[in-house]
Amino acid sequence: MNWGTKLILGMASFMLFIAAMVLIMFNSKKDALVDTDYYEKGINYNKVYNRKEQTKTDHATPEVQANRDVIVIRFREHAKGTAGLMRTSDKALDKAVTFESNMNNQVIIPASQLKKGSWRLIIEWISNEKSYLYEQEIIL
Which spans are transmembrane here (predicted)? Predict the structure, then answer.
């Protein structure tokens, strides 16, 4: 086999590789890591920013302890809101929990049904008629 034949075979195999990658890309499902409502979230980001800043200003950052069985969130004062658990690797595993803190200003979320790994905990709550937002990465 001379060098011309090797060159043609190399080019043909490269073109087949590129064509296969294009077909795989077009036949794959949508990217699960991209929000479908990113435009609305961008417009409303000022509200999110204000809630995060309110948390810092009032020193209202909750204390989060996570282990395999439960996630315990301790607030400084009575709180009512939602806790979102987002799995960055699979949007189908995301979960939202509505809560109201108990007498000890704690919220206990069962975590035994959640997959092990990294989760993003997003807590939105109202306390003393003020809105707060806090985000934290947790490992189960």
Answer: 7-26
Q: What is the reported pTM? A: 0.73
Phi-psi region of 105 (alpha: psi -120 to 50; beta: other; left: phi over 0): left
**Among 102, 27, 119, CA closest to 67:** 119
Which pLDDT band holds residue 32 (cuts at 50, 70, 90)?
low
In this prediction, residue 40 has a pLDDT band, given cuts at 50, 70 and 90, of confident
**Measured distance CA(127)–CA(114) in Å, rounded:** 28
The conformation of residue 35, written as its DSSP 8-state character, comes to: -
Token duo for residue 109: 């979320």
Asked if residue 79 lies in contact with residue 126, where contact means CB atoms within 8 angstroms, the answer is yes
Nearest in space to 119 (alpha carbons), one of 137, 98, 99, 101? 137
pLDDT at residue 83, rounded to an integer: 94
